[in-house]
Amino acid sequence: MFDLHIYSIFLKKNIHVYMEKGNYTKQEYFSSSSLKEPPVEKEFDSPYVLLTLRNGIVIGTYKKDQHITLEIAHDIVRQRQEFTDHQTLPAMIIGEGIVSMDKDARDYLASPEGTAGIRAAALVLNSPFIWALGNFFVTIRKPSMPVRIFNSTEKAAKWLQKFVN
């Protein structure tokens, strides 16, 4: 038996294992079915976006019915940078909650200032409006970091893993 007082993440052969506080034998620990999804290492809940950190990837999930203005976009970027302690990390942006976004907000979020601290971005999009925004970001703005659009978080996370230090 071994006792763990903090959680640790092990990445080996693309298997993510989460150890939480408790006593486990190695067999019990590695055979647990509840260990399939990587753990949330850190979380911040803002009025606009839920920020989580999993396996070195910052995940921003927009909340339902969001109308993103330039002021809100500035808040989101500031909160993300504070959340990540100004580290440069890969990011997954889940845009299902966005209803509209002002042109100034789009321009800012696609700018070097708006993307500062993002090593690579995976946009997980599920509506025609959000796909249009994502395509605008990727094709018109030509971001300075790698960006891809996905329809599943699993595929996005797999792609982003190669950008984790």
Can you offer a commentary on this structure?
Helix content is 32%, strand content 34%. The chain is of the alpha/beta class. The protein folds into 2 domains: 1-37, no CATH class; 40-163, Transcription Regulator spoIIAA (2-Layer Sandwich), CATH 3.30.750.24. The radius of gyration is 17 Å and the shape is globular.
At the fourth level of CATH, the homologous superfamily of the largest domain is STAS domain
Class by alpha and beta content:
alpha/beta
Shape: globular
How large is the radius of gyration?
A: 17 Å
Distance N to C terminus: 31 Å
Strand order of the largest sheet: 5-6-7-9-11-12
CATH topology heading of the largest domain = Transcription Regulator spoIIAA
Uncertain regions spanning at least 5 consecutive residues: 1-35
Report the major sheet: 6 strands, mixed
CATH-scheme architecture of the largest domain: 2-Layer Sandwich
Q: Give the total of beta strands.
A: 12
How much helix, percentage-wise, in residues? 25-40%
Number of helices: 6
Protein traits:
165 residues; alpha/beta; Transcription Regulator spoIIAA; 2 domains; six-stranded mixed sheet; two-stranded antiparallel ribbon; globular
List the helices and strands and how they pair.
Blueprint: E1 2-4, E2 8-12, E3 15-19, E4 22-24, H1 26-31, E5 42-45, E6 49-54, E7 57-62, E8 66-68, H2 70-83, E9 89-94, E10 98-101, H3 103-110, H4 112-115, E11 118-124, H5 128-140, E12 147-150, H6 153-160
Parallel strand pairs: 7-9, 8-10, 9-11, 11-12
Antiparallel strand pairs: 1-4, 2-3, 5-6, 6-7
Helix pairs in contact: 2-3
Brief overview:
The chain is of the alpha/beta class. The chain has helices spanning about 25-30, 70-85, 105-110, 110-115, 130-140, 155-160, and strands at about 1-5, 10, 15-20, 20-25, 40-45, 50-55, 55-60, 65-70, 90-95, 100, 120-125, 145-150. The chain folds into two domains: about 1-35, no CATH class; about 40-165, 2-Layer Sandwich (Transcription Regulator spoIIAA).
